Amino acid sequence: MRLAKQWTALNTFRTLLLLPLLVVGVVSVQAQSPTYGVGRTPTDNEIRLWDIAIGPKGEELPVGSGSVDMGSELYLSKGCAGCHGTLGNGGMAPRLIKRDAGPNADPWDYGRVLPIRSPYATTVWDFINRAMPLGAEGTLTPDEVYSLTAYLFFLNDVVEDGTELNERTLPQIQMPNRTNWEQVPDWLPGQPRLEGYPY
Amino acid sequence: MSQKKTDRREFLKRSAAVAGAVGLGAVKPAIGQDNANTPVAPEPGAFIRGSDEMTAYGTRSRFVDSVRIPHGGRESPDSFGLDFHIATPLQDSVGEITPSSLHYMGTTRGSFVPDIDPDEHRLMVHGMVDNPIVFSMEDLKRMPSVTRNHFIECAGNRSRSQHTSIQQTHGMTSNAEWTGVLLSTVLKEAGVHADADWVVAEGVEEVKGASSIPMAKAMDDCLLCYGMNGEPVRPQQGFPLRLLAPGFEGIFNVKWLRRIKVVDEYYMTYNDFGHLTRDPVNAALGYQIGPKSVITYPSGSQQLPGAGFYEIGGLAWSGGGRVSRVEISTDGGRSWKDADIRGTAHPMAHTRFSYEWEWDGAECELQSRCIDEIGQIQPSRQQALDFWSTNGERATFVKGQDNSIQPWRVASDGSVHNAIS
What is the DSSP-derived secondary structure letter of residue B206? Predict the structure, then answer.
């Protein structure tokens, strides 16, 4: 549409000068169109239904809310306590409450405990929603996941008692390791695993 | 009709009788029991009667008993039917391809293997793309395909001193011929936005296991695989569709793949949390498998019949590219000689090597060392431990994926032992 308007606005001389540019423009537009045209376009609803990967910005979080109080009840009624221990430790499943590392502790000294070590609150929500409870994965409602997430953050002193979390407030939680971790260096084909590793 | 039935019953009865007779009468000396004083020409002890099963899919010889074993002493399947890690019998391997039935298996947490109807399965490609697409399996098979040899190795595949066999020390790697569509083909079809740096790949199993993969890798050589060794991918390997991220740690090769989401940052999702570290060295080592090799024969728990000639055989691989050279030491790493590369060295694929060896019958230690096309050299265990030792504190554990050299000690009685300390 815009091309057509430009076209009529130009005189022949200028058109000839611009022709190579226009061709480049058309080619780059085509590069973004399907080559094979195989498959179909999903509906927005379909994408929302499938899209359970919650990124650090929390854009995919469903509308909902949950509280520490509700979470503490769900922790028992959904069977979390059976595997993770009543207080988030001592069970056969991974520990969910930080180890005592003294005052001014380095967050890494709390142990490999998801709701305190993870740099993003969204990861905890994503993990529970995706993979819990064992044998009944995918059955928790968004509100239940918000509640359980809030409860685990309360257990680890990330949020205060009485906190309510929703799709807007959850991504704003500042986890103690928010920037205290190392991202993998940019990967490129044909690069060594690590410069300086004994080879 | 009834006449037919009778005939069939009669036939079965007779077959059973014949089979029984053969079972009792199989007294001919088996090949290999040579006795120069009473020479016999090799003859089969019995014949395999044709069956519907043999016609339809075939079976291996009843004399071949090579099987996978649960890895790391953990029951698999457990009492709930959950599969855990299962190790391939590398001690029996020949060539480069792992038979699909013997391919190692890894799981994210212990898995019920999904029983997926391929007609119902879909792959969605969406996120930061111009054209989100849903593919059926039929759609994917219409797309341009490639067939490539690639290994997969679990990051936890490491030799420990209590391990006695190569199946325990190295059985969490396998190599197959994979067929499918390049992920780059599908991503280009969807039109990836310029500022997208990662893809999240997600499976359909109960935990919806998902990994963040760098866009550079996704566009380089990742494969959406529906074929494995000439037939559909096996359920334990992700039927009907799995991602292959060649040379990356096993967990990135997402099985039962249902979704590729194009994103602009590392998502720290389900499988990613296990890679979380604040050590830049660990972070860098957490993706690509290092150059690695192992002698499959002779290897731990095997028995050499006596001094004389042997072809030492083994497998070498690297996440950095092709294997360009393999070296062998028969004196515990003091001197090294080039092994022969057998077959073709494919990028990120098990490569078969061999070395002609005259064993003098004295105790010795065999080692192999892989050098890949980008110049990475497999370290000795000593070198790897030196790297991880700090301020005079001696490391006893190689962090991350352990690609250090595997020593096998051949005792003077011909028994072979794991020689790592």
Answer: T
Among B142, B200, B386, the residue with its CB nearest the CB of A53 is B200
Q: Which CATH class is domain B292-418?
A: mainly beta
CB contact under 8 A, A108 and B278: yes
| Phi, psi dihedrals of residue B292, rounded to the nearest 5° | -150, 155
Q: Which of B145, B130, B142 is nearest to B184 (CA)?
A: B145
Give the ipTM. Answer: 0.85
pTM score, two decimals?
Answer: 0.88
Walking along chain A (199 residues) 10 residues at a time, the average pLDDT comes out as 37 44 44 86 96 96 98 97 94 94 91 96 97 94 98 97 97 96 89 84
pLDDT above 90 (res B205): yes
Contacts of B126 in chain A (CB under 8 A): 42, 47, 50-51
Q: Which residues of A, range 178-197, sit inside 8 Å of B by Cβ?
A: 180-194, 197
CA distance linking residue A164 with residue B214, whole number of Å: 35
For residue A165, give the nearest of A79, A58, A76, A51 by alpha carbon.
A58
- pLDDT of res. B415: 98
Q: What is the pLDDT of residue A32?
A: 66
- Tokens 């790897």 locate to B384
Cα–Cα distance, B258 to A38 (Å, whole number):
17
Residue B199 to residues A125, B155, B274, B361, Cα–Cα distance (Å): 20, 21, 17, 55
Domain coordinates in residue numbering, chain A: 67-172
pLDDT at B22: 42
Domain borders along chain B are 117-155+173-276, 292-418
Out of B190, B287, B377, whose CB is closest to A187?
B287
- Predicted local distance difference test score (pLDDT) of residue A189: 93
Domain A67-172 has CATH 1.10.760.10: yes
* DSSP helix, strand, coil percent of chain A (3-state; round to 5): 45, 5, 55
β-partners of residue B89 are: none
- The stretch B97-104 carries a mean pLDDT of 98
